[in-house]
Design a protein that fits this description.
Bound molecules: coenzyme A
Strand content: 35-45%
Radius of gyration: 15 Å
Shape: globular
Number of domains: 1
Strand order of the largest sheet: 1-2-3-4-5-7-6
Length: about 160
């Protein structure tokens, strides 16, 4: 595969990331709905603030994946949550790991965060094993928390606590 560049997100990444976001496997394991619009991704990028650390993976000039570290406020200032998706055609090639390692570097070495957390569909075994390999531990299970493809599915809470 071509080289992977990890860099900050730009507003002109919206069209590429929209394409990634509507891929079947991404839709299956994220909050995406069938009528997801490009404008939703544009709004996401426009809404990012100083406590949102969002990186994309660029391959051959195209943004093929994105991951965000959203830092909380007040008594949760030491906490952030993560979101991530990679275009179906670029999964299982090390891009997710590269993006997560870059975010954890920000969390550990620039923000001094203690707790990084995320939610993952309980049947998303690939993502769960990636998170576990980076030190995340399952803390709990929210039963029937989502309705997807005609079925209720559970959500796992995972966190990496230093
Ligand atoms: C989950 C996701 C972010 C992982 O990114 P990726 O680029 O595909 O993963 P990587 O290639 O970096 O894989 C890293 C590790 O995860 C594991 N892994 C990833 N996908 C896997 C799969 N489908 N089955 C089993 N293991 C898998 C591998 O063990 C791999 O380990 P290795 O580095 O020792 O080879 C990506 O597949 C994705 O966007 N999926 C759809 C949306 C999604 O699930 N988002 C997360 C919501 S919580």
């Amino acid at each position: 595969m071509s080289a992977i560049f990890i860099r900050p997100i730009r507003i002109d990444d919206a069209a590429d990331l929209h394409q990634a976001r509507i891929q079947p496997n991404v839709m299956l394991y994220t909050e995406g709905m069938p009528a997801l619009r490009l404008e939703a991704t544009q709004q996401f990028i426009n809404s990012l603030g100083v406590d949102d650390h969002t990186l994309v993976a660029e391959v051959d000039g195209k943004a093929v994946g994105v991951a965000s570290l959203h830092v909380h406020s007040g008594k949760q200032r030491h906490v952030a949550h993560i979101g991530i998706y990679i275009h179906d055609a670029y999964q299982k090639q090390g891009i997710g790991r590269a993006l997560l390692e870059a975010l954890l570097n920000i969390a550990d070495n620039f923000l001094g965060l203690i707790r990084v957390e995320l939610e993952v569909y309980a049947d998303n075994t690939g993502a769960i094993s990636l998170y576990e390999s980076l030190g995340f531990v399952a803390e709990g299970r929210k039963k029937k928390a989502r309705f997807r493809n005609g079925q209720y599915v559970d959500i796992l809470f995972m966190a990496r606590v230093l």
